[in-house]
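Materials and Methods. Structural model of Purine permease ygfU. The 429-residue sequence of Purine permease ygfU from Phocoenobacter uteri was retrieved and submitted for structure prediction as follows.
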Amino acid sequence: MNSKLSYTIEDHPPFALSLLLAIQHLLAAIGGIIAVPLVIGNVLKLPTEDTIVLVNAALLVSGIVTIIQCRGIGKIGIQLPAVMGTSFTFVAAALAIGFSDAGVGGILGSSLIASLVMIIGSFFMPYIRRFFPPVVTGTVVMMIGLSLIPVAVDWFAGGQVGDPNYATPQNLLMAIFVLTIVIILVQWGKGIFSVAAIVIGMLIGYITSLCLGWVDFSGVKAANIFAIPQPLHFGLSFPISGIIGMSIAYLVTIVESSGNFLALGEATNTEITPQHFKRGILAEGLGSALAAIMSTTAFSTFSQNIGIISLTGVASRYVVAITGALLVLAGLFPIFGALIVSIPLPVLGGAGIIMFAMIISAGIQMLNSVEKTRRNGLIIAIAIGGGLAVTTRPELLDKLPDFLKEVFGSGITVGALLALLLNQILPEE
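The predicted structure was written out as tokens:
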């Protein structure tokens, strides 16, 4: 457990500090939230205005569901500092539907019907929870961090492998500069300088990038100042094959989100009960249904923001609820989101590499409490090895049927499924 929390789940930091801390979560999440609609819009060659509809709706619904997860409505919402966003787990199924005659309406209709898998599944989470002993939970949490490291490395290097500016000395120096600032502030900073280390480090990196002429404001200039949400903009259709594909993606997301909830519990010093699982998964399912109606893709809990909690010791759900409010504003005022997206990738990478590594550290600490037996060692080794195989070499799945690629496309999912399976079939010593 994280024994050095500056603010616990129920704490209310002063508003000015809470706003700064909420912006810190926003900076970590917004790139991932808009990435999925941008990928779908670009690959399907949608008109610019349609892609903007997908992006605005993603930000707006992310904010709404984040607030529900943090604050809770009745028996909906995990009531922990969980940031919600569009999930890459659904991209493969979405593109397959999008390239068919069903189009974007088919993607959203399939997602709406298939969200029942998560909504109904949430009521069985108390039974599912017993399959997650410490050897499984620690392995899954560790795999979450390991799966995110390649994302942080690409940010650190300034793009994707093959880009002409990938890993240039300038990009690496900027990322190291931001990373150094964050480390100094976390280790030796006091008060606000410690708990807001990530946003301060990124702000200094952004100002430095601005002085160097690295910041591209073209997206800001092209963005609308205000945009009204457009429910059912693409209509809805319900192809059977699309519903099946999306249902599989939702099953995978249940496994991933269960791991994220466990990591969140570790970061916030909270024992995750079956009711936490039920409420959290239900909120995700209902949020994904709302996303389909509001014209964007399905949702899950963001693991990168768990790293911020582990690093800063700020577990207040009040703070993350403010992040949700900021996301709603970003959905209504696209220029706000465009300004955030203008942050150069090396600046994000300098902070991201340590945030995601903190999740790995949390997983290692959880595994420290596991009995050191040959059986447990096999479970940990094979699960992490299999998850990393898919993460580092996704080409392994290229020649498999689309169904299997959908199921095993995520290293987190592969690691979690292997840990769950081995824990059931290997005999106790």
